[in-house]
Write a structure and sequence with these properties.
- This is Helicase C-terminal domain-containing protein.
- The protein is an alpha+beta fold.
- The longest helix is centred in the middle third of the chain and has 25 residues, at about 295-320.
- The two termini are about 35 Å apart.
C-alpha cells in the first residue's frame, strides 16, 4: 500500500489532499465520499446515523468517523449475512482486491450463479455504508473492518481460514524457506522474499497444486481435510509422524509456535475449490405460510383477543384502584405482589408481568411518588376509560410497538446477578421495537390469513442481522421474536398466528394486500460490478435497512385506520343482565360502564369469558349498602337492568341484609357499639369470639371496646352481625371506594438503539454543512506574501496541515479591504460565539465598523462577520478565485 493510500483512514483533523483527477482511482475513503452525490451521502447517513452526531465539519472528518471502531462495529452488526460474508471475504483477499477475486472467493471455482447474481447487491450495501471503497478493480475494506474480520490466532475468522504463506513464514529462517522450495520441487532463490512468492505462486496455481497433492500420502490428505474448514491450527509433537512430516517439509503446514502448526490460506482455498465460506448464503431463508385461515376468522379471533386485552387492563387497574402494591426500594414489584396480581387476573405470572408492563408503557399506571411509594393508576387512565373501545386498543397497541421495556426478561438476572422485577429498572432492550416491527412485517408479507413458523421467522432474523443472531438460536433477538408472536396474539394484533386487517393497518400496510417483504421496500437494489448493472430477478432481496421513520402524523393516521377497522368487530356493550334463581346474574356480553360499575360492588365475579357470571352474597349486598345504596335502590336497579324478573331469593337476600344493616352502630371512643336491643349486646358479650375486642358495657345499649373502629367493624362482621359505622354526629357513614391516583405522569420513553434515524430535513441540512466545510478545507490557497516572516510561516503551516489561517489584525483588515476593491475571494478562519471554529470561503463586499459583510460561498448567502472573530485570512489561488 502506498503512503497516499494508507493515509486515507488515519484519524486526525482536516485534510489537505487535493481532489483526485476525474477518472482516477480514489486514494482514500474521503476522496471516495467526495465523489459521491447527495443522494448517496444521504443513504450513508441514514444507514449510519451515528456519523452525524454531531455533524462533521467536512468529508475528511466524516471518513475518519466512519472508520472508528465503535461506528464500524455498529455498521457490521446491521449487515445481513451475505453482506457480512462479502466483507469477511474481502478481509482475507489481497488488498486492494479486484471484483473478480472477490467473486471467486464467494462463488468458488464452479462459479455459483446465485452467488454471482447476488454479489453486486452485497457490494453495493458495503459501499453505501462506507465499509468498502474504491473502484471495481481496487476494492478496499476500511481498515478497522479488516482488523475486526481478518483471521488471527486470537480472533479466528468466520471463514475458518488461517494466515497467508507470507504471514505464516514471518520470522522463519531463510535457509528453512529454501528447504521448503526444494522439497516442493521448486528452484531455490537468492532471498527469502522471492522464495515466499514462489511458494505462494505454487499454492495458488490450481494445476501444479493438484499435481503436488496427488503425490501426497492418503494419511496426509486426511490431516488436511480435518483443517480445511477451520480452525486451521493443529498441535504436533517435537517428532511429528510421517504424514505430518510430509506436509511440513513442503510448506503445506507451517509452524506458528512451538508445537503448533497452521494450514496456509492459499492451501485451504485450493482444497475448498476457491470458496472462502463452507456455506455461502446469498438469499434470505424464506418465510412460508404454515397454515392459512380465512381472513374473516383471523379478524374475528383477533378482535376477541383485543376485547379481552382491554378487559384485562381494566381489571388490573380496578384491582389497584385504591392504591396498588408497594414499590421495592430498588424499584419494581416484589415476587409476592406479582403472584397476587397473577391470581387476581387468573393468568400465569409471566403473562401478568406483560399486562403490568403494557399498562405502564401506555402511561396508565405509575408510582405515586409518596414516601411509602405505591403503584396506582394515573389521571390518564380515567381519560382512557372514556374513549371508545377501539381507540383504547390502539393506545395499547402503539405503546407496545414502540416500547423498549421487555416483559419477557422479568424473572431473569442482570449483569450483577440481581433478579429483574416487573416495573423495575433494567428491563429496557433497545432491539425490541425493531424486532417487533420486523416480525410483524414478515407476517404482513404472507398471504392474508397466513401464519408462519416461529423457527422460520427466527432464522430470517438471524440472516438479516448476522452478527447479532449468529451466536445461538436462543439469543436475545430470537427470544424477543418469540415473545412478539405471543404478545401480538394476546393484544389482538394477530389472530391464530396470522396478521389481522387492523394489524396490517397499524403497521402501515394496506389491508387486503401483502406488504413488501423487506423493510427497505420492493426490490430495487443496484447490481453489477460497481453498481452499473440492474438486477431484474425478483428472488433477490434488497439490502435490509432500517425502515424510514414514520412521522407522528403518519403514526396517528395508521392507528386511526386500525381503530376504524377494529371497531365493527368488537362486541357492543349491553345494558342488561339475566338474573337467575340461584342468586347469580349472567352478563351475556360486555356491559356498559355504569351497569358494570354497580354490579362490581353489588356482586362478586364468579367466572369470566364470553359471558360473565356474577354471584350475590350477603357480603356483596352489604358492600353496596355501605356505599350508600338503599334496599329499594338496589331492587329498582336490578328491575331496570334485568331481562328476567328479580328472583324471590335475591329480593329476600337484599331485604334481609338491609334489615340488619346498621342495627349495630360503631363509633370512635376508642370504639363503641350501641344498639337499641340490649339482648343483641348480651349475645355479643357472651360470644367467645369477641374476647379479642375486649368489650365492656357502659350502658344497657352501649358497649365500649379497646380496638379501633375498623377492627371492631370487621370483628363483628366475622361473627355474623351487620354493623354500620357512624359519625360523631350519630349519622351512618357511607363508605365509598376511594380511587387513588398518581400525580400526572408521562409514559416511559423508549431507550433507542443508538442515535435515531435522521429525517429528510436534517439530512439535507447536514449534507449542506458537510459540503460547505469540505469546500473551505480543500480550496487551494495562495502562499502568504506578508512581510512578517512569522506570520508567513504560520500561514504556510496552516496550508500544510489544514488548520485555521493565522494573521495579525492589521493584515486581516488590509487583506479584507483589498479584496473589496478587487472583488477577490478569501479563505478565512472564524470562531463563533460558542467557541466553535470553522473555515469559510468569502467574497468581501463591505468592511466597516469592525464588521465585514461578504458573500459566504460555503453557506451560499450574504453574511456579516465581526472582524475580531476572524483568526486569519489567505487569498485563494488564481484558478479558484
Amino acid at each position: 500500500m502506498s503512503v497516499q493510500e494508507q493515509s486515507s483512514e488515519e484519524p486526525g483533523g482536516a485534510s489537505t489532499e487535493e481532489p483526485a483527477p476525474a477518472g482516477a482511482h480514489p486514494r482514500s475513503l474521503a476522496e471516495d465520499l467526495r465523489a459521491r452525490d447527495d443522494s448517496s451521502l444521504s443513504a450513508l447517513l441514514r444507514a449510519r446515523p451515528d456519523l452525524i452526531t454531531p455533524v462533521p465539519t467536512d468529508l475528511t472528518q466524516l471518513a475518519t468517523r466512519a472508520g472508528t471502531r465503535a461506528s464500524v462495529i455498529r455498521a457490521l452488526e446491521r449487515l445481513d449475512r451475505f453482506a457480512l460474508q462479502t466483507a469477511e471475504a474481502l478481509a482475507v483477499a489481497p488488498e486492494p482486491a479486484p471484483y473478480g477475486t472477490l467473486r471467486d472467493l464467494l462463488a468458488g471455482d464452479a462459479g455459483d450463479p446465485v452467488v454471482v447474481e447476488a454479489l453486486p447487491r452485497a457490494v453495493a450495501v458495503l459501499r453505501e455504508q462506507a465499509l468498502v471503497w474504491g473502484s471495481d478493480d481496487r476494492l478496499r475494506l476500511v481498515r478497522t473492518a479488516r482488523e475486526l474480520l481478518a483471521p488471527s490466532p486470537q480472533h479466528p475468522s468466520p471463514t475458518g481460514l488461517g494466515p497467508t504463506v507470507a504471514e505464516a513464514t514471518t520470522g522463519m529462517s531463510p535457509g528453512r524457506i529454501q528447504e521448503l522450495l526444494t522439497t516442493a520441487g521448486l528452484p531455490t532463490t537468492h532471498d527469502a522474499v522471492s522464495a515466499v512468492e514462489s511458494l505462494t505462486e505454487l499454492f495458488t496455481d490450481r494445476t501444479r497444486m493438484s499435481a503436488l497433492l496427488d503425490s501426497a500420502p492418503p494419511e496426509s490428505l486426511e490431516v488436511l481435510s480435518r483443517l480445511v474448514w477451520g480452525p486451521p491450527y493443529g498441535q504436533v509433537t517435537a517428532d511429528p509422524a510421517a504424514r505430518l512430516r510430509w506436509l511440513l517439509d513442503r510448506g503445506l503446514l507451517l509452524p506458528t509456535a512451538p508445537g503448533t502448526v497452521v494450514l496456509p490460506r492459499e492451501v485451504a482455498l485450493h482444497l475448498r475449490a476457491g470458496r472462502a465460506h463452507q456455506k455461502t448464503e446469498p438469499l434470505p431463508p424464506p418465510v412460508e405460510p404454515v397454515s392459512v385461515h380465512r381472513p374473516q376468522v383471523v379478524d374475528s379471533t383477533a378482535a376477541g383477543q383485543a376485547y379481552t386485552a382491554l378487559a384485562t387492563v381494566e381489571e388490573l387497574l380496578k384491582d389497584w384502584d385504591e392504591g396498588g402494591p408497594s414499590a421495592l426500594r430498588a424499584g419494581g414489584l416484589s415476587v409476592r405482589d406479582l403472584k397476587r396480581t397473577a391470581v387476581a387476573l387468573d393468568v400465569p405470572e409471566p403473562v401478568a408481568a406483560f399486562w403490568v408492563e403494557l399498562a405502564y408503557a401506555a402511561g396508565l399506571l405509575a408510582p405515586d411518588g409518596e414516601a411509602d411509594e405505591r403503584y396506582a393508576a394515573t389521571p390518564a387512565y380515567d381519560e382512557w376509560l372514556e374513549l371508545p373501545a377501539a381507540e383504547r386498543w390502539t393506545r395499547l397497541a402503539t405503546a407496545w410497538l414502540s416500547a423498549t421495556r421487555t416483559a419477557g426478561v422479568v424473572g431473569g438476572r442482570d449483569t450483577k446477578e440481581r433478579t429483574l422485577a416487573a416495573l423495575g429498572p433494567g428491563l429496557d432492550r433497545s432491539a425490541a421495537p425493531e424486532v417487533r416491527h420486523r416480525v410483524l412485517s414478515l407476517l404482513a408479507a404472507l398471504p392474508e390469513g397466513g401464519s408462519a413458523s416461529p423457527d422460520a421467522l427466527v432464522a430470517r432474523l438471524h440472516w438479516e442481522r448476522a452478527l447479532r443472531g449468529a451466536a445461538s438460536s436462543d439469543d436475545l433477538r430470537s427470544r424477543i421474536a418469540r415473545w412478539t408472536l405471543t404478545e401480538a396474539e394476546s393484544l389482538g394484533i394477530t389472530g391464530r398466528g396470522a396478521l389481522s386487517a387492523h394489524g396490517r393497518a397499524l403497521m402501515g400496510a394496506p389491508p387486503g394486500a401483502a406488504a413488501p417483504e423487506s423493510a427497505g421496500g420492493p426490490a430495487s437494489a443496484a447490481g453489477g460490478p460497481g453498481d452499473k448493472l440492474p438486477v431484474h430477478h425478483r428472488h433477490l432481496h434488497p439490502p435490509v435497512s432500517p425502515p424510514e421513520p414514520r412521522s407522528p402524523a403518519e403514526l396517528a393516521s395508521a392507528a386511526a385506520l386500525a381503530g376504524r377497522l377494529l371497531a365493527p368487530l368488537l362486541p357492543e356493550p349491553l345494558d342488561h343482565v339475566l338474573l337467575q334463581a340461584d342468586l347469580t346474574a349472567v352478563a351475556p356480553g360486555p356491559l356498559r360502564r355504569p351497569l358494570a360499575d354497580v354490579l362490581d360492588v353489588l356482586a362478586d365475579v364468579e367466572s369470566k369469558g364470553g359471558a360473565t357470571v356474577y354471584r350475590f352474597t350477603p357480603g356483596s349486598v352489604r358492600r353496596a349498602l355501605d356505599a350508600g345504596r338503599s334496599a329499594s335502590d338496589l331492587q329498582a336497579f336490578l328491575t331496570a337492568h334485568s331481562r328476567t324478573p328479580v328472583p324471590q331469593p335475591l329480593a329476600y337476600l337484599i331485604d334481609d341484609v338491609a334489615r340488619r344493616h346498621g342495627h349495630l352502630r360503631i363509633g370512635a371512643a376508642s370504639a363503641y357499639v350501641r344498639c337499641d336491643d340490649d339482648a343483641v349486646l348480651n349475645e355479643i358479650i357472651a360470644d367467645k369470639r369477641a374476647q379479642g375486642l375486649r368489650l365492656r358495657r357502659l350502658a344497657p345499649t352501649v358497649l365500649a371496646a379497646q380496638a379501633d373502629p375498623a377492627t371492631l367493624l370487621e370483628g363483628l362482621r366475622a361473627m355474623g352481625f351487620a354493623p354500620a359505622a357512624e359519625s360523631a354526629e350519630g349519622d351512618v357513614l357511607i363508605t365509598r371506594a376511594h380511587a387513588h391516583r398518581t400525580p400526572p405522569r408521562t409514559a416511559p420513553e423508549p431507550v433507542p438503539d443508538g442515535p435515531p434515524a435522521p429525517d429528510t430535513t436534517l439530512l439535507g441540512a447536514a449534507i449542506r454543512a458537510i459540503r460547505a466545510g469540505d469546500l473551505a478545507s480543500t480550496t487551494p490557497r495562495k502562499p502568504s506574501s506578508s512581510g512578517s516572516a512569522g506570520s508567513a510561516g504560520a500561514s504556510a503551516g496552516a496550508e500544510r496541515n489544514g488548520a485555521l489561517p493565522r494573521t495579525t489584525s492589521a493584515e486581516t483588515l488590509a487583506t479584507m479591504q483589498a479584496a473589496v476593491l478587487t472583488g477577490g475571494t478569501l479563505w478565512i478562519g472564524y470562531v463563533n460565539a460558542e467557541g466553535a471554529a470553522s473555515q469559510r470561503v468569502i467574497a468581501p463586499v463591505r468592511v466597516e465598523g469592525g464588521f465585514v459583510t461578504a458573500y459566504d460561498h460555503t453557506a451560499d448567502e450574504v453574511r456579516t462577520y465581526p472582524l475580531h472573530r476572524v483568526t486569519g485570512v489567505a487569498e485563494l489561488a488564481d484558478d479558484q478565485a
